[in-house]
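Weekly structure sync, notes
Attendees: PL, DS, HV (note-taker this week)

Item 1: Catechol-2,3-dioxygenase
DS walked through the input record. Source organism listed as Celeribacter halophilus. Sequence as pasted into the shared doc:
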Amino acid sequence: MTEMVRVGALRGIVMRGPGLPETLPFYEDMWGLSLAHKEEGVAYLRGTGPEPCLYGLKEGEVFGIEYIHFAMDSRADMDALYEQVSGMGETVLGAPAEFDDWIGGYGFEMLDPDMRRLRFRCEARELDDREEWAMPRKVSHVVLNTPDLEGREAWWERVLGFRASDYSADQMVFLRCNSNHHSIALVRAHYPSVNHVAFEVPTINEFMRAIGRMKQKGHVPSWGPGRHGPGDNPFAYFVSPSGFVIEFTTELQQIDETTHEAQVWPRDVPEKMDQWMTAGPPTPAQRAVMQGRPDAGWPELAQQATVGKAFQ
Ligand SMILES: [Fe+2]
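Item 1 (cont.): predicted structure, written out as tokens:
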């Protein structure tokens, strides 16, 4: 049996919802991203690294995820991943092909069992590195709410080669595709939705300064700053103008595949969840906003006749 193909890395995410492109100034003036490209109905935001789109703002009727964006190292890996997932009978939205959007490159798309669109791309446009202090460099992780935690964990592992790095009680699993402790995490919930998206700033000093920049502009964290147990990463959560939860993070744990063993972190030992004991547990309001708004995903959009625009 040949070894299974693993997803290479998380590139970013494109969000959609009513009025999302109009929230661009928040990300430019406060969050620390910059506009990389804009076209009809969608704005692509970059960080200081080479990735052309960390966060996309797309106009749409339903608040949710337009697509989650992953990288593969090469066309050979891309084709092998496609063979793997289509061979398992998963829902793919066409064979690997050249993308004709601004980011370019080669790849394909598929749906996860919660009908979320996943886009895999290699040979994407690369931007010049920017030397700017206290700005997000990349997307660290995307956390998804799901009504079937165990089933979805098994799916990400079996189909895309993710591995469980840790668990938070019986409520959450942290999944890695490379040395980062988690690129995707899943949370037990009543319906599929986005829990939050985390942006990595390079150092703890810059992490604090980024929080300070937000505070000076009138935005205090809705939760944090604190330091998580699983992943060992500092966190500060904010609520975006469209009601999505976004996070600054840094220093995410790096996993050594030869020695790491997943553990179940307890939730009833405060210092295990909040190492600095600065954040406290999430408030009911924070939990509510992290539950997100129900997003039926791609088929609903297909009914709105946007399928022909899938590769835009
Ligand atoms: Fe997070």
